[in-house]
Design brief:
By secondary structure, the chain is α/β, with parallel strands linked by helices. It is about 50% helix and about 15% strand. The longest helix has 29 residues.
């Protein structure tokens, strides 16, 4: 499907992957419908999209409110007459051990990351069934879907739930006879967005660095690729594929390696970082951006390749050692 003059609804469009995807779609001539909580930031993104050649409609939306999401779909069809693609890119995060995470914040995270996507599907699918076609895209994560790491149990739980929801949704659409609707789950690894700057933090530690990261623009290219040629699952980048392969070969060793790196490389030693709810309940506002400033240039690419190679080699060695220990 060519994107020119196609109608693409994007939640989480004010920042990170959602914003990068909106700009990428606009450059291809799409009509973009932008959804997020911050009206001012959405207007800025809409202006950027129109400068790149697309038509844009900004609709302030809280994805946790079913009525707000239904109104988003209605606004899209009222302006452009249809919805060709609905991309659920809205997401929030909480850093903290499971027993340090306030229950209300965990509930809010699940409401945004899971129920928000379900609300999007409930609003988009009836429109797409009426058209006879459409594409629903959910931005999940390699974390939770394939691998695990400490201090992000809520986030990983939400992304695992999203993957399962998409699998079930494909089956239900087939049973409904809605063969023209495709469901695609995008699974990025680390991405250089403002996500960690905006995440709630209850670790008592500042984030020191991130895993080797991809650019939001790279993930946006994966999303626009899925719009042109839908596939059930898309892993973004060689690091994601290598990490998935390592986990398949030696899941225990891969989890242990990720746990060590998270504990000793990505977080500062235990300190006095204050607890923060991040942007769970309040829009990010002027701190919204495409990138998070963690860097994704050639040095990061080299680190990403080295880390992926090390993890894969560790998994291979572990699998071989396990095979030698197995009784004959």
């Amino acid at each position: 499907m060519k994107l020119k003059k196609r109608v693409v609804v994007i939640t989480g469009a004010s920042s990170g992957i959602g914003r990068a995807t909106a700009l990428a779609c606009a450059r291809r001539g799409a009509h973009v419908v932008l959804a997020a909580r911050s009206a001012r930031e959405l207007d800025r993104v809409a202006q950027q999209c129109e400068r790149r050649g697309g038509r844009a409609l900004a609709v302030p939306t809280d994805v946790t409110d079913p009525g707000s999401v239904t109104a988003l779909a209605a606004a899209a069809t009222a302006r452009f007459g249809r919805i060709d693609v609905w991309a659920n890119a809205a997401g929030v995060g909480v850093l903290g051990r499971f027993d340090q995470t306030p229950p209300g914040e965990l509930r809010r995270l699940l409401d945004v990351n899971v129920i928000g996507a379900v609300n999007g599907a409930r609003a988009a699918v009836p429109v797409m069934r009426g058209q006879g076609e459409g594409i629903l895209i959910d931005v999940a994560s390699l974390l939770g879907a394939v691998v695990q790491a400490p201090y992000m149990s809520g986030y990983a739980m939400s992304k695992a739930a999203l993957v399962t929801f998409d699998d079930v949704l494909r089956t239900e659409l087939a049973l409904m006879g809605a063969s023209g609707i495709s469901v695609c789950t995008v699974l990025p690894a680390g991405v250089d967005t403002p996500f960690f700057r905006h995440a709630a933090n209850h670790t008592g530690r500042e984030l020191r660095s991130l895993p080797p990261v991809a650019t939001p623009e790279r993930v946006a290219r994966a999303l626009t690729g899925a719009m042109r040629r839908p596939r059930p699952r898309v892993l973004v980048g060689p690091y994601a594929r290598s990490l998935a392969a390592a986990h398949t070969l030696a899941p225990g060793l891969t989890r242990a390696a990720l746990a060590r790196r998270t504990e000793h490389r990505y977080l500062d030693p235990a300190g006095d970082a204050p607890d923060s709810p991040g942007n769970l309940h309040v829009p990010s506002g002027r701190s919204s951006a495409v990138r998070g400033g963690r860097g994704s240039g050639w040095r990061t690419a080299a680190r990403r390749t080295a880390a992926a190679t090390a993890l894969t080699c560790t998994a291979l060695l572990g699998a071989r050692a396990a095979g030698r220990r197995r009784p004959t």
